[in-house]
UniProtKB/TrEMBL annotation:
<comment type="similarity">
    <text>In the N-terminal section; belongs to the enoyl-CoA hydratase/isomerase family.</text>
</comment>
<keyword id="KW-0276">Fatty acid metabolism</keyword>
<dbReference type="InterPro" id="IPR006176">
    <property type="entry name" value="3-OHacyl-CoA_DH_NAD-bd"/>
</dbReference>
<keyword id="KW-0576">Peroxisome</keyword>
<dbReference type="GO" id="GO:0006635">
    <property type="term" value="P:fatty acid beta-oxidation"/>
</dbReference>
<dbReference type="InterPro" id="IPR029045">
    <property type="entry name" value="ClpP/crotonase-like_dom_sf"/>
</dbReference>
<dbReference type="GO" id="GO:0003857">
    <property type="term" value="F:(3S)-3-hydroxyacyl-CoA dehydrogenase (NAD+) activity"/>
</dbReference>
<dbReference type="InterPro" id="IPR008927">
    <property type="entry name" value="6-PGluconate_DH-like_C_sf"/>
</dbReference>
<dbReference type="InterPro" id="IPR018376">
    <property type="entry name" value="Enoyl-CoA_hyd/isom_CS"/>
</dbReference>
<dbReference type="InterPro" id="IPR001753">
    <property type="entry name" value="Enoyl-CoA_hydra/iso"/>
</dbReference>
<dbReference type="Pfam" id="PF02737">
    <property type="entry name" value="3HCDH_N"/>
</dbReference>
<feature type="domain" description="3-hydroxyacyl-CoA dehydrogenase C-terminal">
    <location>
        <begin position="615"/>
        <end position="702"/>
    </location>
</feature>
<feature type="domain" description="3-hydroxyacyl-CoA dehydrogenase NAD binding">
    <location>
        <begin position="298"/>
        <end position="471"/>
    </location>
</feature>
<protein>
    <recommendedName>
        <fullName>Peroxisomal bifunctional enzyme</fullName>
        <ecNumber>1.1.1.35</ecNumber>
        <ecNumber>4.2.1.17</ecNumber>
        <ecNumber>5.3.3.8</ecNumber>
    </recommendedName>
</protein>
<comment type="similarity">
    <text>Belongs to the enoyl-CoA hydratase/isomerase family.</text>
</comment>
<feature type="domain" description="3-hydroxyacyl-CoA dehydrogenase C-terminal">
    <location>
        <begin position="474"/>
        <end position="578"/>
    </location>
</feature>
<dbReference type="GO" id="GO:0004300">
    <property type="term" value="F:enoyl-CoA hydratase activity"/>
</dbReference>
């Protein structure tokens, strides 16, 4: 609702009330219309102030209303009547004004923001554009380049930046509403013509075509396949080149296409999924609302290689005291230098002081005796990790949480080496750990809810999107990656090239195809693991065993590449060729094509034409099938957990919602039918056999994704 009152004898105060963010649901919209009418028709009222309750102006349209019949007054006429009012209207922005909330403020004649408030037009992140005239008013107010930046990125800006851009008129340090009321009284009688933004001419831009072309090109590169950023540019272009009324019409047309698009549905799903996963639960019933964490002041990182360095930086930048331990002399020296550089660069970007003094370096484990939490990041070697956990348990004070950054190994085996196994959890960061947003928090069978709560809260403090998952090989992300990568290799055997597969995946929206990722992370990493697992045979093996391991189909192609010394970017040669070792510019390599032809000839394989569609179906459906298995096994609490892991950790295009949401969009019967088809053609690939949960969901009429948790309960109760 919107509450109306008369304050200071002459100011009509309209307070938006719709907790928690005062979203513009139908009831609020009715409330605004009624209150504005009251204020404008009351002769005692000389000016109007609009604010939100509980220190929050307005979080924009009520996203939960999208996809419903959206009854109630529309926003555009409401904002026009505010702007046309003959009494000054002032927006008092506390907390934030986002999307429709900022568009409401742009309809007002003046905007006053609290110094801690943030504003923005984040519609693009929901697959939309600011279609309550925001795309037309903002460029008129702050100019085309700044508006383009805000509208196409959706970023939230501080009150200080908003003031600098001319988006707000004043910043208040204390009671914003009181300041706005006084301000509203002070401007009574002043002409309002110059305050009505829709009357403004857009400030002229030299080389307007060049500017729009540059922005468009950048967007095509960074938001591969996403339609909303492109529509945002087109809408701002309309503001820059057309009269307001025509620009508004263009905005409306563009929004009509976006509003019902699959991309908007996917992005809005991601918005809510991100919030769902923060309310974690464990199969034993423990959950975020029943489990308390404990404050962490001092943490340790063990092993300062690729991951440990990033984790130490992320902890220090969050304000924790960190003891960073590395045993190898050269690594120790290199790590100190590298961490210092990362802190410096981070400080430059954020404008803060580099947190060098937060980190103490040591080559001795005794230095961590008084820390509250340890994150182990030594080599991926179970024997070593077990030894380290034994030492940690001896050295650390009782009650210290012991976390491992392992990407695949059994948390419980490490916990078993300690005196308090209930304090052991996985904290699986992604490289580079100070940049990547995802954190998989892995609970073993003995992990306490308190330990999970601590890791989840720590992740949140570090600005990570944290997802709690169960303990199995590869957890959620890496477990699902395996069948996807296997399919990519099998497709090479059957006639594809690395560039054909990567192109199909990149056109789908991945930032990088499977083989570019291999080259980036190093082919030798997986080779080492496969060797330890006894999967690698010299020369790839021969005869029947060459392409079968432990009874299932296996491609030795990756092993053979490593035997040739082709480890990827680091050696300048991998699935692509590079100008020099370390270079990132991947070029197709005729050597690889010959190598694949020889391989096929040796194994009697006849190359066939492989379509983009087949690449996507084989790679993605195999991955999705594993996702259903993960749900069936209770490793992830719901499809949202899997989707958020893929969107934030594995470059899955957000506008496609994550693998499980994508399956839901494609249609579960289609996914099942294709998997059955591929499984029949590949009986030696068990990961293509459709799993029970998928079959049960289809048999029960393919419920929407929001109902899968319920369906999963039935499957679990039958087990
Ligand atoms: C042809 C049709 C024409 C239609 C025209 C429509 C044109 C438009 O007018 C378009 C729009 O406004 S689209 C909406 C734009 N606004 C946004 O994107 C802001 C979304 N919210 C946020 O960023 C953060 O919640 C925020 C920064 C605000 C607060 O962050 P916090 O971390 O403090 O809190 P959260 O945990 O994120 O949120 C608390 C609870 O509020 C729910 N929520 C937030 N924003 C909402 C919103 N706009 N609508 C509905 N629910 C919303 C959020 O889901 C969470 O709920 P629970 O998870 O249940 O607690
Ligand atoms: N590299 C990646 O992209 C990711 C790796 N991980 C996991 O993180 C862990 C570390 O991986 P990386 O950083 O890539 O390895 P790395 O090889 O770059 O670094 C490991 C470091 O640990 C040090 N170390 C070994 N034993 C030690 C001990 N007893 N005490 C102190 N330091 C010791 C080594 O000297 C080395 O500097 C592994 O478990 C890996 O699976 C997880 C996510 C991503």
């Amino acid at each position: 609702m919107a509450q109306y009152s008369l304050v200071s004898g002459s100011v009509g105060l309209i307070t938006l009330k719709n907790p928690p963010v005062n979203a513009l649901g139908a009831v609020v919209r009715h409330g605004i219309v009624d209150s504005v009418e009251k204020a404008l028709s009351d002769p005692k009222v000389k000016s109007v102030v609009i604010c939100g309750q509980n220190g929050m102006f307005c979080g924009g349209a009520d996203i939960k209303e999208f996809g419903t019949d959206m009854k109630g007054p529309p926003l555009i006429p409401m904002f026009h009547s505010l702007e046309a009012a003959n009494k000054p209207v002032v927006a008092a922005i506390e907390g934030g004004a986002f999307g429709g909330g900022l568009e409401l403020a742009l309809g007002c004649h003046y905007r006053i923001a609290h110094s801690k408030a943030k504003v923005g037009l984040p519609e693009v992140t929901l697959g939309l554009l600011p279609a309550a005239a925001g795309s037309q008013r903002l460029p008129r107010l702050i100019g085309v380049p700044a508006a383009l930046n805000l509208i196409t990125t959706g970023r939230h800006i501080t009150a200080a930046e908003a003031l600098q851009l001319g988006l707000v008129d004043q910043v208040a340090d204390h009671n914003t509403v009181d300041t706005a009321v006084k301000f509203a009284q002070s401007v009574v009688g002043k002409s309002l013509d110059s305050r009505r933004i829709s009357n403004f001419q857009c400030p002229p831009v030299p080389n307007v075509d060049v500017l729009f072309e540059e922005v468009m090109q950048k967007i095509r590169q960074t938001s591969r396949g996403a339609i909303a950023p492109i529509a945002c540019v087109q809408a701002v272009r309309a503001a820059a080149t057309l009269p307001y009324k025509d620009g508004l019409q263009k905005e409306k047309e563009l929004m009509a296409t976006l509003f019902t698009s699959g991309q908007a549905r996917s992005l809005q799903y991601c918005f809510f999924a991100q919030r769902v996963v923060s309310r974690w639960s464990m199969p034993n019933g423990a959950s975020w609302d029943t489990s308390k964490g404990r404050p962490i002041h001092k943490a340790a990182v063990i092993g300062l290689g690729t991951m440990g360095r990033g984790i130490a930086v992320a902890l220090a930048q969050t304000g924790f005291s960190v003891v960073a331990v590395e045993t190898q002399e050269k690594q120790f020296m290199d790590a100190k230098k590298a961490v210092a550089g990362m802190l410096e660069r981070g400080a430059k970007r954020s404008g803060k002081v580099a947190a060098h003094d937060k980190i103490i370096y040591s080559q001795n484990l005794q230095a961590i005796a008084d820390v509250d939490l340890v994150i182990e990041a030594v080599f991926e070697d179970m024997a070593l990790k077990k030894r380290v956990f034994r030492q940690l348990s001896d050295v650390c004070k009782p009650g210290t949480f012991l976390c491992t950054n392992t990407s695949t190994l059994d948390i419980d085996q490490m916990a078993a080496e300690t005196r308090q196994p209930e304090l052991v959890v996985g904290m699986h960061f992604f490289a580079p750990a100070h940049v990547m947003k995802l954190l998989e928090v892995v609970y073993g069978p003995r992990s306490s809810p308190e330990a999970v709560a601590v890791a989840m809260q720590l992740g949140k403090k570090m600005g990570k999107v944290s997802v709690a998952v169960g303990n199995c090989r590869g957890f959620v992300g890496n477990r699902m990656l395996k069948p996807y990568r296997d399919q990519a290799y099998f497709l090479l055997e059957e006639g594809a090239t690395p560039e054909l597969i990567d192109q199909a995946l990149e056109e789908f929206g991945f930032a990088m195809g499977a083989f570019k990722v291999y080259d980036l992370s190093g082919l030798d990493v997986g080779w080492k693991v496969r060797k330890e697992e006894g999967l690698v045979l010299p020369g790839g093996g021969s005869g029947k065993s060459a392409r079968i391991r432990q009874g299932v189909r296996y491609s030795p192609l990756g092993d053979l590449m490593c035997e040739e010394g082709r480890f990827g970017q680091k050696t300048g040669r991998g699935w692509y060729q590079y100008d020099k070792p370390g270079s990132r510019d991947a070029k197709p390599d005729p050597w690889v094509h010959r190598f694949l032809e020889d391989y096929r000839a040796r194994h009697g394989l006849v190359a066939r034409r492989i379509s983009n569609q087949e690449v996507l179906e084989r790679c993605l459906y195999a991955m999705i099938n594993e996702g259903f298995r993960i749900l069936e096994d209770g490793i992830a609490a719901g499809p949202e957990d899997i989707d958020i892991i893929y969107v934030f950790g594995y470059g899955w295009p957000r506008h496609r919602g994550g693998p499980m949401f994508y399956a839901n969009m494609v249609g579960l019967p289609i996914v099942l039918e294709r998997l059955e088809h591929f499984a029949q053609a590949n009986p030696d690939v068990p990961t293509l056999q459709p799993c029970n949960l998928l079959r049960k969901l289809v048999a029960s009429g393919s419920p929407p994704i929001s109902k899968w948790r319920e369906a999963m309960k039935n499957v679990h109760s039958q087990l």
